[in-house]
Amino acid sequence: MIDEYDILIVGAGFAGLSAAISASKDGAKTLLVSPALAKTIPDGEAGLDLLGIGPKTAAAFEKVADCSPPYYIATHGFKYISPDGRSFTDRSEEERGWTLMTTEATQILLKKAVVNGSDYIKSPVIYFLTENGKVEGVMLGDGRMIRSKVVICACGYNPNLIEKLGVKPPEESLFALQTIVEMEKEGDEHLLFTFFCGKKWSDSLGGFLMPVSRKKAVVALGVKSREDAHRYLLRVIKEHPVLSKAIKWNPGRMYGGLIPLGLTEKSFGDGFLLVGDAAGHFRPVGGVGTGNALIFGDIAGKIGAKAASEGDSSSERLQEFEEEWKKSPEGQKLIQAIPYSKVLREADDGLLEDAFSAFEGREIGENFYLELIREVSERLKV
Ligand SMILES: Cc1cc2nc3c(=O)[nH]c(=O)nc-3n(C[C@H](O)[C@H](O)[C@H](O)COP(=O)(O)OP(=O)(O)OC[C@H]3O[C@@H](n4cnc5c(N)ncnc54)[C@H](O)[C@@H]3O)c2cc1C
Fold first, then answer.
1. Is residue 30 in a domain?
2. Mutate which of 102, 290, 325 to test ligand 1's pocket (most atoms within 8 Å of Cβ)?
């Protein structure tokens, strides 16, 4: 058994790094344990390590890291495409989104955590140490055991590890797959986040085209199972009525991972907290995962540090975390989005096409997705 910590964080993704920064800033003796920094692609092609972010996520990064998020390119709005290729553009001169360089972003966050005083061990956690049902530490891949007053599990969507805490992981998930493509024509018209949907193109929530530069973009889509993902992604590139004409055929390197659709039954327990994708904090409407991971990770670090300093890491004490994130504006949006996203996931192409027709000749509002879901729901009622 080595050192005892106040806070031990499992996973160096946006949630775990944010928790490490806030816990160490609040004076807790903090350890971060992870086999790797999340969303980095070893020897990967520049641009494949990107996530699309909006102003709230950018602000959350800035608050946590004390610097602007590193990005490939700024985007100026959105384009939404129906299953048959009807498209609606909502573009402005101002910057409304960015394609985050995730390798640089997680490196900045790790440095900030270490500067604040966190220790970092590069290793997987394979087991949680418990005493009378209370989590008291972890066992690492090399057999080392480390004790901690509070364990914050931020391991992403990793059902096997989450279950070891005695917590039921979200039952549904989607497999997201992305690849870099070159655009047929180089230009400013690509500087939009483009959302496309339809069962023909994705049997789940749909996908995005996100610019990396004026001539390169990433196509990303979410489907129900890993086995079908390549087939769907290649079909979009070759056959989609809008995208296949805009992008060049490029069967290059693909990169993917699992994303939860739904919350874990709880995000706290005796001696532990769960945060980020590990707790199901991904917002499926609009695809917001990074922002929630950063915001709720910050809350987890603060509450964990406070509980550790008070010497009370009971389930009753740590429940405050769930109360706090649920009442935050982003928590409220997440709770609303989970059932709504099911409507979008289950709607067939004919219904979606008809719902898109309601936007013809109309201004696109701030939350297109919720409006689209409303249109779909109304048609389901008839
Ligand atoms: C292909 C793809 C595209 C996406 N696109 C977007 C997007 O455009 N915008 C957006 O906001 N979100 C997007 N997401 C979702 C977003 O990536 C996640 O919501 C976000 O990264 C969650 O952060 P996290 O810290 O909870 O988990 P993760 O980023 O998954 O980090 C988990 C960390 O835990 C570590 N870990 C795993 N197992 C163990 C273990 N046993 N022991 C110790 N550590 C462990 C991992 O190595 C990793 O460092 C996308 C996801 C995928 C897969």
1. yes
2. 290
